[in-house]
Write a structure and sequence with these properties.
The protein is of the alpha+beta class. 27% of the residues lie in helices and 30% in strands. A five-stranded mixed beta sheet has the order 5-2-3-6-9, with helices on one face. It has a three-stranded antiparallel beta sheet with strand order 1-8-7. The longest helix is centred in the N-terminal third of the chain and has 11 residues.
Length: 157
């Protein structure tokens, strides 16, 4: 993974002929800060969470105004154990720090699961491998290019 994540993501979207907009901004570290600096609703943020479900790492993508419904996800999908990856695990798997991960598990060899509520947002926004780079694209284009597993994964924060 010597090519930066942003460059790999940009290439992937360009190869798929997916339109997107890049916004470079001051570094932000929370979903609330990101929404404010982008000038968009918090719910339009596509929050990427690297988790370990039983013995497998995967990526959950949620609207930024919601949280993972851990107990419900375990029950609905038959996971015995479900936890967030540690900062060290996230760094090892993605090469990135939490909060800068784009919602494309495919970039890291991870299955991607997307909360069905993200589809309520015609336009989604997310960090692109750096705390100071965001991408905006349509949810429909995201779903087309990433092809995540869609499920009910979140609850109100």
């Amino acid at each position: 993974m010597s090519t930066p994540v942003f460059a790999r993501l940009e290439q992937s979207l360009n190869d798929a002929q997916i339109p997107f907009r890049v916004l470079r901004h001051e570094p932000v570290y929370t979903s609330e800060e990101a929404a404010r600096i982008r000038g968009v609703p918090l719910a339009s943020g596509a929050k990427a969470l690297v988790c370990k479900a039983d013995d497998q790492f995967l990526m959950f993508v949620l609207p930024a105004d919601r949280r993972l419904a851990n107990r419900q996800v375990r029950s609905d999908h038959g996971f015995r154990k479900l936890r967030f990856a540690t900062q060290e695990e996230v760094l090892e798997i993605t090469g990135l720090l939490p909060g800068s991960i784009p919602p494309f598990g495919s970039l890291f060899g991870l299955p991607t699961w997307c909360d069905e509520r993200l589809a309520d947002q015609p336009q989604i926004n997310f960090k692109a491998g750096d705390h100071s780079i965001s991408i905006s694209m349509t949810y429909a284009d995201y779903q087309q290019v990433e092809q995540p597993r869609i499920a009910l994964l979140s609850e109100s924060s």
